[in-house]
């Protein structure tokens, strides 16, 4: 077209200018090259713009497809009417085809979301009422709905959960009403105000508030459960107290022979004397004023019971005597009884003062017994050790103690323990003496044991034990002397000697009991008051008394005379065993 400017015309015009100027070929080539590069740059920019526009359309198409897939996944729809099946054509054509379907699915999604919000709101409402975070009827905040999962299956799950929560709410309401009924019944029996009691748990539990508005929270149920438990415990304690008071009333009535008319006045108290907790349902039957009324009557009768002072006083005196007897303190019971009887008959002392005085005596007696307990415990240990010492003597005298008879191993174990115990007697006696003297210095009086000074008993025991040790020492010397004489007189023709451990049976029969003079030969003026529990110094059981009496007749009367005159050879094992009474020397290995 004439007058149209093109690249060729411009290039021709440029060639004419160069010719006129006389431009060199080299400069011309550079200019032409620059023109080619500038044209390329322009084309390149246009191509980039077109590519970017295409990419944006493709991205929009991809986003639409992703949104379509997301909506289909969220709604759980596998096939939607008018779902675009066209996947070919231009990008703009594909976008136009998918747009209506997206609009339809978006509208369906919003409707489904509203259904989820409605169901979840009800679920949150009931959960809040159960947890106690919201009150009954209070509106909850709009819940957050997961828009990526709006399927009908999930909606049905929420609806099922809502049905379960509504059922639980109904059960909780039924349980709350049951608790409220129990509180009402207990308050009626205990004489308490039901309204003020139940509203302490929650204000909505009042009878004036409808059932649908009552609190069903965990805290309310827990408090109701604790309240019912507390009221039941109060009921149990009050019934126990009332039954105790009823028992005291019966005891006092029986003590004072109260008439039936007086007893009938408290039938409302005594009627539940043997009733169980569940049996007591009458209104006000365990009210506090009823219990106070019974307590006042018991106090009144308790004051009247002092007319029975003689019986009560002698009962207190018996208790006092039992305490002194347990502490081994001797008192004049006959004089005490006469004194009490004289005071009651003379009427010079108030009954309450007499009872208070006897209670004071009992308290002092208990304190006295407590102060003597440590010493008495050691006395018992001492007596027990002496008993074992006495048994050990009898055991060491038994020629058959090492035979394999039945029970021999038990006696051997007992003997070992007895020797250990006997070895502790001196230290025990020393400790006992020290404690007794400290007690006497602190109290300023002698420590009496069943009427005998304990220190005198201990001193006598120590003296007798020393005498017995000296006696055993003399007997061992006598025994060695006899053995030497036997070894000299019974030498064989070849210089051999008869063993002292094999004496004739007739010589065994006349063997002396070495400690007979110590065990049973104690002079009367040195008798210990230890109730037959000392080591051979007191009376023991009947069988052993007979054995000791028999042995006593065979014991030497004068030890010095026995030592001067030779006696028949004793059995070596028997005599060795007799020297182990104190448990200080080793036991012979063979009989």
UniProtKB/TrEMBL annotation:
Where along the sequence do coiled-coil regions lie?
148-175
Q: Which domain of life is it from?
A: Eukaryota
Disordered: annotated segments = 484-591
Keyword Cytoplasm recorded = yes
Q: Where in the cell is it found?
A: Cytoplasm; Nucleus
Polar residues: compositionally biased ranges: 516-536
Residue stretches of biased makeup (Basic and acidic residues): 542-551
Annotated Low complexity bias? 553-565
The record, for InterPro entries, names: MAP65_Ase1_PRC1
Any one annotated GO CC term: nucleus
Q: Provide the family line.
A: Belongs to the MAP65/ASE1 family.
Specify the protein name.
65-kDa microtubule-associated protein 1
Per the UniProt record, the source organism is Urochloa decumbens
Organismal lineage: Eukaryota, Viridiplantae, Streptophyta, Embryophyta, Tracheophyta
């Amino acid at each position: 077209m004439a007058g149209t400017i093109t690249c060729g015309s411009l290039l021709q015009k440029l060639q004419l200018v160069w010719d006129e100027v006389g431009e060199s070929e080299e400069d011309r080539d550079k200019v032409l090259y620059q023109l080619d590069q500038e044209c390329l740059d322009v084309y390149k920019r246009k191509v980039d713009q077109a590519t970017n526009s295409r990419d944006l359309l493709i991205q929009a198409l991809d986003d639409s497809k992703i949104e379509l897939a997301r909506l289909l996944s969220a709604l759980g729809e596998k096939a939607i009417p008018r779902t675009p099946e066209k996947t070919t054509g231009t990008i703009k054509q594909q976008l136009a085809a998918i747009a209506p379907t997206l609009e339809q699915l978006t509208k369906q999604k919003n409707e489904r979301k509203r259904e989820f919000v409605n169901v979840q709101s009800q679920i949150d409402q009931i959960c809040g009422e159960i947890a106690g975070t919201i009150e009954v009827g209070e509106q909850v905040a709009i819940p957050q709905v997961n828009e990526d999962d709006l399927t009908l299956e999930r909606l049905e799950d929420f609806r099922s959960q809502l049905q379960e929560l509504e059922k639980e709410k109904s059960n909780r309401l039924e349980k709350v009403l049951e608790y409220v009924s129990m509180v009402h019944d207990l308050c009626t029996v205990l004489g308490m105000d039901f309204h003020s009691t139940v509203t302490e748990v929650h204000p909505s539990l009042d009878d004036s508030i409808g059932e649908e508005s009552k609190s069903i929270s965990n805290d309310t149920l827990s408090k109701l459960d604790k309240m019912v438990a507390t009221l039941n415990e109060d009921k149990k304690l009050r019934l126990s107290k009332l039954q105790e008071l009823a028992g005291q009333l019966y005891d006092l009535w029986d003590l004072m022979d109260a008439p039936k008319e007086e007893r009938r006045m408290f039938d409302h108290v005594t009627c539940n004397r043997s009733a169980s907790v569940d049996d007591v349902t009458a209104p006000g039957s365990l009210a506090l004023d009823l219990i106070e009324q019974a307590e006042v009557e018991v106090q009144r009768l308790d004051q009247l019971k002092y007319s029975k002072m003689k019986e009560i006083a002698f009962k207190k005196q018996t208790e006092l005597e039992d305490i002194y007897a347990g502490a081994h303190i001797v008192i004049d019971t006959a004089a005490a009884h006469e004194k009490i009887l004289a005071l009651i008959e003379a009427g010079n002392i108030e009954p309450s003062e007499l009872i208070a005085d006897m209670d004071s005596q009992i308290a002092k007696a208990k304190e006295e017994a407590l102060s003597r307990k440590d010493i008495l415990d050691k006395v018992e240990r001492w007596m027990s050790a002496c008993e074992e010492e006495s048994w050990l003597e009898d055991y060491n005298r038994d020629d058959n103690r090492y035979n394999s008879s039945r029970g021999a191993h038990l006696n051997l174990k007992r003997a070992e323990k007895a020797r250990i115990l006997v070895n502790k007697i001196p230290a025990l006696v020393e400790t006992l003496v020290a404690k007794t003297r400290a007690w006497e210095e602190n109290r300023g009086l002698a420590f009496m044991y069943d009427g005998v000074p304990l220190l005198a008993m201990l001193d006598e025991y120590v003296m007798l034990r020393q005498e017995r040790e000296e006696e055993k020492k003399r007997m061992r010397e006598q025994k060695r002397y006899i053995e030497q004489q036997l070894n000299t007189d019974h030498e064989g023709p070849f210089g051999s000697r008869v063993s002292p451990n094999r004496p004739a049976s007739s010589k065994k029969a006349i063997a002396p009991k070495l400690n007979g003079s110590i065990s049973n030969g104690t002079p009367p003026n040195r008798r210990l008051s230890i109730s037959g529990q000392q080591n051979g110094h007191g009376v023991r059981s009947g069988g052993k008394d007979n054995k000791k009496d028999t042995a006593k007749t065979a014991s030497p009367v004068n030890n010095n005379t026995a030592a001067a005159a030779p006696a028949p050879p004793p059995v070596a094992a028997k005599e060795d065993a007799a020297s182990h009474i104190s448990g200080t020397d080793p036991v012979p290995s063979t009989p």
